[in-house]
Amino acid sequence: MHRRSAIPARYRAGVAVALAAAMALGATAGCSSAKSTANAALDTARPTTITIWTGQDQAPEKIMEGLAAQFHQLHPNVTVDMSPGAPTTDQLLPKLTAAFTSGTYPDISYNFGSWATEMQLSGRTLDITSKVADPAVKWDEFPGAARQTATPNGQVIGFPAVVDNIAVMYNKKLFAAAGLPQPTNSWTWDEFRADAKKLTDPAHNVFGTAYSVSGSEDTTWHFWPLLWQKGGSVLTKDNKKAAFNSAAGVSALTFLQQMAVTDKSVYLSQDDQKYADLFKSGLVGMLMTGPWQLADNVTAGLDYGVVYLPAFDGQNHQTISGPDLWTLYDHHDADRAYWAYTFDQWLTSAAIDPKFNLASGNLPLRSSEAASPEFAAYAAKYPGAQTLEDNLKNATLGRPTVPGYNGLSQVLGKAIAQVLQGQGDPKTALDQAAKAADTALAQGD
Predict the structure, then answer these.
(1) Do the first three CATH levels of 16-164+322-383 and 167-320+404-443 match, i.e. the same topology?
(2) 16-164+322-383 topology per CATH
(3) Closest Cα partner for 434 from 162, 170, 240?
(4) Could you say which residues form the signal peptide (predicted)?
(5) Which helix (H) or strand (E) holds 140?
(6) For residue 320, which of 114, 162, 165, 115 has the smallest C-alpha distance?
(7) What pLDDT sits at residue 67?
(8) What percent of the chain has pLDDT over 70?
(9) pTM > 0.85: yes or no
(10) At residue 52, what are phi and psi to the nearest 5 degrees?
């Protein structure tokens, strides 16, 4: 993956207060895109510079710079001033916060999807809702979860940058050794649990599956698909209070508890990397993971397969996606707004996106790219890529992007970790976490 963070789309602590101040400043400025750019006459021939913060590591940054040069060749009057913007993707958020105050924010920035609502509430983003409604944009080619993430409070503020999802990767050699048939896309969680028990071999330090108990967003976001499949919700309908402590949440966490505490078939990873290393080393039979794991599997020479997440009812294989965004920012300049939007649309088009996302080891953004020769080559290089691409249809819900999600994720992650380590019962742990999450949501942290 090219996002410079171990966990996709995570909030980071310590920026909420500063961002709130920037949001207040933006509100004082009072600028929606439609109002702020309408008064300046657009001249698409005028020399224009747009600034882009990519948030990328060295290799994908080089790809992006090459694409920027290509865009300049197509539009010689447009200069693209491109840089990573910050030492890590995570650090883009506080830098954007400071830049909102100083007025030095970019025209486009890579954003974790979980920042979307805060960015929109800052008053600094462009509203491109009417533009993406143009059939020529083919907005519906992006996965539903990605479109949802890009549309906080009903306003589209940018284009999807990365799409992913969680499936189950399994070790074919370990399945054969346990005398188990390989799983299929129609399997159930009961089958997953039974397979995990049979795969577990304490004498050889082999576990059926694994789960992070670091208490981070990695702990939390692996829980959401099980909650959703049970019919639960993360938040109440008004997005103001936690709802994960419902009967659905208790049932989902009880299932994981039974596997970890009763069956002892789950390797409980104290960080967010060790369990993935154990999987590629052949010591974990099944792993809930995504496309970022493919390259490591191939490099390790692992004989693996990929299937959808199991379903509790045999039908609903709901998964989770952590889409990130190329967010557009408003500088009250019609020319900059026009070219920033044009670049964003071009970068994420079916013709150009493979040159960035597939080249960086990510899934393609658009459904139409699945038939491209570039994706065929990618799928041949990384077995299971086609299943992950197909699995995007099961990512129909997006994680909340509301202020306060960071605090919610932290308290729920700790609750899940405690229960899986035998230190509490699911209902009490979820009720306590929900109470703390409500405080975080009310405070916006």
Answers:
(1) yes
(2) D-Maltodextrin-Binding Protein; domain 2 (3.40.190)
(3) 240
(4) 1-29
(5) none
(6) 165
(7) 98
(8) 91
(9) yes
(10) -130, 130
Q: Which residue from 292, 321, 325 is spatially nearest to 55, judged by alpha carbons?
A: 325
- At the topology level of CATH, where does 167-320+404-443 sit? D-Maltodextrin-Binding Protein; domain 2 (3.40.190)
pLDDT, one tens digit per residue, over 100-130 is: 999 999 999 999 998 999 999 999 999 999 9
Question: How are strands ordered across the β-sheet holding 48-53?
Answer: 78-83, 48-53, 108-111, 324-328, 158-162
- Write the single-letter amino acid at 333: D
Confidence of residue 398 (pLDDT cuts 50, 70, 90): confident
Backbone region of residue 319 per phi and psi (left: phi > 0; alpha: psi in -120 to 50; beta: other values) = beta
Q: Print burial letters for 37-60: b (CB count within 10 Å at least 16), e (below 16).
A: beeeeeeeeeebebbbbbbbbeeb
Query: Could you state, in order of their start, the residue ranges of all structural domains in the chain?
Result: 16-164+322-383, 167-320+404-443
C-alpha span between 196 and 177 (Å, rounded) = 13
- Where do we find the tokens 């509203």? 127
Q: What burial class does residue 267 get, using C-beta atoms within 10 Å of its C-beta: 0-12 exposed, 13-18 middle, 19+ buried? A: buried
Which of 259, 265, 287 is closest to 419 using CA atoms? 259
